[in-house]
Specification:
The protein is mainly α and about 110 residues long. Helix content is about 70%, strand content about 0%. The N and C termini lie far apart (about 80 Å).
């Protein structure tokens, strides 16, 4: 049977301090920096996976509902929209974690001639 006596208070305080220190260290740590190639592979993978899942779900709906090709077309469309949403969300998180420096040149707009 387990010992039902609580641990001494000083041990609990020591544990709380160590846990708080570890949490603060983890929250202030910089996110890992990936290369442009790894970011592009992530974009492509998320976009392709979303389209593939949408197509498979649409194909499955066609099979059971006998509504060919409408389920597949709707599934691909929804997968495409989901893929775009995932890519935009990932790019926004990356831009938030890696803001451009103050000396970065602004991107020229089409109207800036």
């Amino acid at each position: 049977m387990a010992d039902k006596n609580p641990p001494p208070q000083d041990e609990l305080d020591n544990l709380r301090r160590r846990v708080d220190a570890a949490r603060n260290e983890a929250s202030t740590a910089n996110p890992p920096q990936g290369s442009a190639a790894s970011l592009a592979m992530r974009f492509g993978g998320e976009f392709g996976a979303a389209i593939l899942v949408g197509a498979l779900l649409g194909f499955g709906a066609d099979h059971f509902l006998h509504s060919s090709p409408w389920g597949l077309m709707i599934g691909v469309g929804l997968g495409f929209a989901t893929g775009i949403t995932n890519v935009v969300r990932t790019a926004a998180k990356y831009n938030q974690a890696h803001p451009p420096g103050p000396s970065a040149r602004p991107v020229a707009d089409d109207d800036d001639d």
